[in-house]
Design goal:
heterotrimer; A mainly alpha; B mainly alpha; C alpha/beta; A: mainly alpha; ABC transporter involved in vitamin B12 uptake, BtuC; 14 helices; globular; C: alpha/beta; Rossmann fold; 2 domains; 6-stranded mixed sheet; 24 strands; about 35% helix
Chain lengths: ~325, ~325, ~500
């Protein structure tokens, strides 16, 4: 038993361990401040909030593992929220399609990202930034001049805020399922193996006869879909979708992935780390707001903590 | 004759940007109700100079094959700081301006040090430092407001005798004092060399680290110049994430439109300036053609995507598929 | 030369290791002013490491360097340049986006008031180009637009502009046209009379005969002999270069193969200006070598067959049927059954941080998975089989492949492709930089694979390998197959003379 535990820890990345250690430290700091920090209710609440970020970070991680980045997350997420609420306004029974339609729109944008990055070979940083602007443009255009239907359906609200089983938030189940699928995909499928291989060295992956471009395309599509599904849930959570609802999520998503030990240049990282990173960021946000540190301080501490942690364990090896 | 041909080839991107801008601006003033008047040009120039300065800032870093996602936030930070300290008597204002520019330099230096000596990726680094800079901006200006030295502001955003916008002269001054010396200095050349091929630059004994650091420092400086100008135009400061994000995005778009290679090593800040002007004119064009203003973000996004995708035409010339992987 | 006076430059007992591989072992060298000193040796003999140490690109682990009798150390290329040692590297050190003049003046441009003086720089560049005999190159032309041979001339001009005391040329003529070679030789001879020391590294024996005063031969990281040029016969030099240590390691070649069926046939294959009208065929059970000097299109030919190159003309037939191979994925598919062991295992063959298992099964994922889901039991079994078949020495299949020795890494690259049981195996210099023991295992493996019906196309820069392993050798020169050697014709003399294309080179020089 003891040996098994030691073996487990050996297999875990140092970065993942560091992230979990930080989580525990944050909880301890929080509990000194208020005893409610260790209550199950508080923790469940945090996990519910973390689920939204968890979905986004999942997509971001796929893309980062490839050595790319997806900066279109903010407005793809908004598209997901706004399109699902738009579909909610359709006549029955079509309004049942609200959730899939929102996700589908995100996947379409992600697909376009994938075409740009994999086939047109535009650097992902630029192409996804442009796609973010296009998504924003589309949404501004949609709301411009008149107020469209923006209320979430009952299903979206239940999915985001309800607790159907054992008082566990439904959103957490959603993240749990997505996470389980992602772990399976990354560790047990040829697609997952190809993702790591491409992230390590695309040239070698291509010469090994892997379908590198298709893999990149799929990963970006998934990232778009996941960001949009977070948008759907967030719309359900706050009962409506609104402009710029995704803006606060880009930096936390990248940070969660990188703090979880995924190499920003691609090829290395485990989903366990991303889970740790997501929880870490969520707790950090929560504690900063409980301690009544204002938005300014929160932004500052975010940025600084991310840089510090990266300087400690995320540095590139010296080249040449 | 051959000299001219090489000069033309080297500056093709810049010349193209100038051409695009001139055509667009001609259409704009031709259709504007007030026509080619000094006021129309001054307003256009004031808006254009802001983005031009931020685009210059972005160019510095992009030339070294990096990227700076924090330029917009340095711009916002400079704006918030200027609306706080660049006020009062002439002497106080001068000190304030120096303080703002020094802050910009410090921000750029911080980025540079983390990227070069901390060996973190520029993209993650500047995303995170962008949050820090924005945090400081919010701390300085939790609500929009502040003040500026109105005399100076009016002077810098108004017109010189003959109807020439002062802001254009300011921009020209910055180009002559910052860009031209940089372009012709040892370190400037080194920055180009690093961006073009870091291993070759190393083999050639080029001062790689100093060149990259200088690029980041100048980037911070130029972005804070932009923030100062924003203060003089709006008479106030605002810590807005949307402004920062928009300027960052548009700076990249302007750089691309201006013919600066995102892979580093080629292009010029002059091109980026005209790229910025052209981008600004798009918005104005939509206005004179009575298009609803909410078309503008989409338009800009599409143009950025189109511009970067045009670069993909080079793929057609690639004969060895391994070259795709660099 | 008076042996008592200290030489211009001396190194003594210099060693360098990369990971587990020793690149240089107790090497020593004396360089005199006003002499051209040739350095000879096979690939991997340590020549490149030697000059990289001299030029400050890498640092020696131990040993001593002296310039003018004083101890020196060069932590960076800049330091070496400062001391007057300038190297023209094989992999070009030019900056593609800058102009010729910018490049020539890159490390120390003329300045006025702290800024680069464009006019003075241009004069300097024109002067340097003239000294290098390349007045035809325009100083404002961007380097990326110049063809390879012109770039090489710029590289030489750049080196001259630094006013070196010791000039190192590493295969500096490999990309040049015959006309340029003659010009460069004239320049080098003039520099010698001006009192420079020149260190000249080349594979081309006739160039060395024409230029060198002294020669030093390297083998396996050691300098094995230094002699005055012209005192040894070509045969003796080659023997010193390759030694005779592994002539016995090759498995016997079977006699009288059936060559009526062809597994792969190529008809009039051309690609840009790099491959010209290539036709050949190879049968199951055959090991066909690709010979010639390095960089004569052998690598391009293998990539062309493997579906990497675009814009090919001509035909490729697999098992007698025309094949359209547009990607490595198509090449390895069951219809074609090809495998390519690439040139550089670190950038093209392996994912160094990934595990041995992940690397081994990467090309064969299709065979160990169903509907995209990897069958872990099947994968583990197949991986274990390969590890024992090739006797890969590893502490387990879960450790990262980067922690293995070079030879074992190379075995992983080969094993990874054997997992798809390929019918046509393309090898791109697979034994470069690995130990003799592993080489021997690889030779035997290749013969075993051929005996089991595989067709093998084997490019090697090592003539011994071609002689020992191949049933036939296609010798390439300038993108074309200029001779096919068979049986007893596969010998050193024939390989070298056809590699240098001796009949046609004289004509080319007059052209």
């Amino acid at each position: 038993m003891g040996a098994a535990i030691i073996g487990f820890f050996n297999r875990m990345d140092r970065a993942v361990l560091a992230a979990f250690a930080c989580i525990i430290a944050l909880l301890l700091v929080g509990s000194l401040y208020s005893s409610s920090f260790l209550s199950p209710e508080y923790l469940l609440q945090q996990l519910q909030v973390a689920s939204f970020l968890g979905l986004i970070a999942t997509g971001m991680m796929l893309v980062v593992l490839l050595g790319q980045i997806d900066l279109s997350v903010p407005w793809v997420l908004t598209v997901g929220g706004m399109m699902s609420t738009a579909a909610a306004g359709w006549d029955a029974p079509w309004n049942l399609l609200a959730i899939p339609f929102g996700i589908f729109c995100g996947m379409a944008l992600g697909f376009a990202n994938g075409i740009g990055v994999a086939y047109l070979r535009v650097p992902s940083m630029i192409f996804t930034l442009g796609m973010n602007a296009v998504a924003q443009g589309l949404m501004v255009l949609r709301t411009g001049g008149f107020a469209p239907q923006d209320h979430a359906t009952e299903a979206m609200r239940v999915l985001a805020t309800g607790r159907l089983v054992l008082n566990i938030p439904n959103a957490l189940f959603v993240w749990g399922i997505v996470g389980a699928v992602t772990i399976f995909v990354l560790t047990r499928t040829t697609f997952g193996r190809a993702v790591y291989a491409i992230g390590n060295r695309e040239r070698a992956a291509y010469l090994s006869g892997l379908a590198t471009q298709r893999t990149v395309l799929l990963a970006f599509t998934a990232s778009g879909g996941l960001a949009a599904s977070a948008g759907v849930l967030l719309a359900g959570y706050s009962t409506k979708a609104y402009q710029a609802m995704g803006d606060p999520y880009l930096l936390p998503a990248v940070a969660a992935v990188v703090l979880g030990g995924t190499n920003i240049l691609g090829g290395r990282g485990s989903y366990l780390g991303t889970i740790a990173g997501v929880i870490l960021i969520t707790l950090l946000q929560s504690i900063l707001s409980v301690m009544q540190i204002n938005e300014a301080g929160r932004q500052l501490i975010y940025g600084a903590v991310i840089i510090l942690m990266l300087l400690i364990y995320g540095r590139q090896r010296k080249q040449i | 004759m051959r000299d001219f041909r090489y000069w033309f080839a080297e500056n093709r991107g810049t010349l193209l940007a100038i051409l695009v801008f001139v055509v667009m601006f001609a259409i704009y003033t031709g259709n504007h109700s007030a026509g080619f008047s000094a006021n129309v040009i001054t307003t256009a120039s004031n808006k254009g100079v802001l983005l031009a300065l931020v685009a210059m800032a972005q160019t510095m870093v992009v030339l070294t094959a990096g990227i700076d996602l924090s330029v917009g936030m340095i711009f916002v930070l400079a704006n918030c700081l200027a609306s706080t300290i660049a006020v009062g008597t002439a002497f106080e204002t001068t000190l304030g301006i120096i303080g703002v520019l020094a802050t910009g330099i410090a921000c750029g230096a911080l980025n540079g040090v983390i990227v070069i000596y901390g060996r973190l990726q520029p993209i993650v680094t500047t995303l995170a430092t962008g949050a820090v800079f924005f945090g400081i901006s919010l701390w300085l200006r939790s609500v929009p407001g502040g003040d500026t030295n109105a005399d100076l502001a009016d002077a810098l955003t108004g017109q010189l005798p003959g109807g020439i916008p002062t802001s254009l002269v300011v921009l020209l001054g910055i180009v002559l004092l910052v860009w031209v010396p940089f372009r012709r200095s040892m370190l400037g050349r080194a920055a180009y060399a690093v961006g073009s091929s870091e291993p070759a630059a190393y083999m050639s004994g080029v001062p790689i680290e100093r060149a990259r650091l200088l690029a980041y420092v100048l980037s911070g400086f130029l972005a804070s110049c932009g923030g100062l100008m924003l203060t003089f135009i709006t008479y106030s400061g605002e810590a807005s994430a949307a402004i920062g994000g928009t300027y960052t995005l548009n700076s990249i778009a302007a750089v691309v439109l201006g013919g600066v290679s995102l892979f580093g090593g080629s292009g010029s800040a002059i091109g980026a300036i005209f790229g910025a002007f052209a981008l600004r004119t798009i918005g104005d064009l939509l206005f004179v053609f009575d298009m609803e203003p909410f078309w503008q973000p989409l338009f800009q996004g599409v143009i950025l995507l189109a511009a970067v995708t045009l670069g993909s035409l080079r793929l057609l010339r690639i004969k060895n598929r391994l070259d795709l992987f660099g | 030369m008076d042996a008592v006076t200290a030489p211009l430059f001396r190194m003594e007992g210099v060693s360098k290791r990369y990971g587990g591989v020793r690149a240089l072992e107790e090497a020593s060298l004396r360089v005199e002013a006003g002499r051209i000193h040739a350095v000879l040796g096979e690939n991997g003999a340590g020549k490149s490491t030697l000059i990289k140490i001299m030029a400050g690109v890498v640092q020696a682990d131990q040993g001593l360097m002296e310039l003018d009798g004083r101890k020196v150390a060069f932590p960076t290329p800049k330091a070496a340049n400062g001391a007057g040692i300038v190297c023209i590297f094989q992999e070009l050190s030019l900056i593609p986006d800058l102009s010729v003049a910018d490049n020539i003046a890159i490390s120390d441009p003329p300045t006025r008031f702290g800024l680069i003086d464009g006019r003075a720089q241009r004069r300097l560049a024109e002067e340097a180009l003239a000294r290098a005999g390349a007045e035809d190159i325009h100083p404002m032309a961007p380097v990326k637009d110049l063809p390879l041979s012109r770039r090489q001339m710029v590289e030489i001009a750049k080196a001259l502009a630094r006013r070196p005391r010791i000039l190192i040329l590493d295969e500096a003529t490999s990309a040049l046209t015959a006309g340029d070679v003659a010009k460069v030789f004239a320049v080098l001879k003039r520099l010698r009379t001006e009192g420079l020391a020149l260190l000249y590294i080349s594979h081309r024996m006739h160039e060395i005969d024409e230029l060198a005063d002294e020669c030093t031969v390297f083998r396996n990281g050691r300098n094995v002999a230094t002699y005055k040029a012209g005192t040894k016969t070509g045969k003796e030099v080659v023997e010193m270069m390759i030694g005779r240590e592994y002539s016995h390691v090759f498995p016997p070649k079977p006699a009288g193969r059936d060559r009526t069926t062809s597994a792969i046939e190529v008809r009039n294959l051309s690609w840009t200006n790099r491959l010209t009208d290539i036709s050949f065929r190879a049968s199951p059970g055959e090991i066909v070598g690709l010979g010639g000097l390095d960089g004569q299109g052998q690598r391009d030919l293998l990539l062309a067959l493997f579906g990497v190159l675009k814009g090919l003309s001509g035909e490729i037939l697999i098992d007698g049927r025309p094949a359209q191979i547009r990607s490595p994925r198509a090449a390895k598919g069951s219809r074609n059954g090809m495998a390519l062991i690439p040139e550089d295992r670190k950038t093209e063959g392996l994912m160094l941080p990934m595990s041995v298992r992940d690397n081994l099964s990467l090309a064969a994922l299709g065979t160990v998975s169903r509907f995209g889901v990897i069958d872990q039991v099947k994968e583990a079994k197949a991986v274990e089989e390969m590890v024992s078949l090739l006797a890969i020495r590893t502490a387990g299949t879960g450790i990262s492949v980067g922690s293995l020795s070079g030879g074992n890494q190379q075995k992983v690259v080969i094993a990874k492709w054997l997992m798809i049981t390929p019918r046509i195996i393309l090898l791109n210099d697979p034994t470069r930089g690995i130990d003799v023991g592993t080489k021997q295992e690889i030779y035997q493996l290749l013969r075993r694979l051929a005996d089991n019906g595989a067709t093998i196309l084997f490019y090697s820069t090592d003539y011994d390998e071609l002689i020992g392993c191949c049933d036939r050798v296609l010798v390439m020169y300038d993108g074309a197959i200029i001779r096919t050697l068979e049986g007893a014709d596969i010998n050193e003399h024939m390989l070298i003379s056809s590699a240098l294309n001796i009949q046609t080179e004289g004509e080319a020089r007059h052209a």
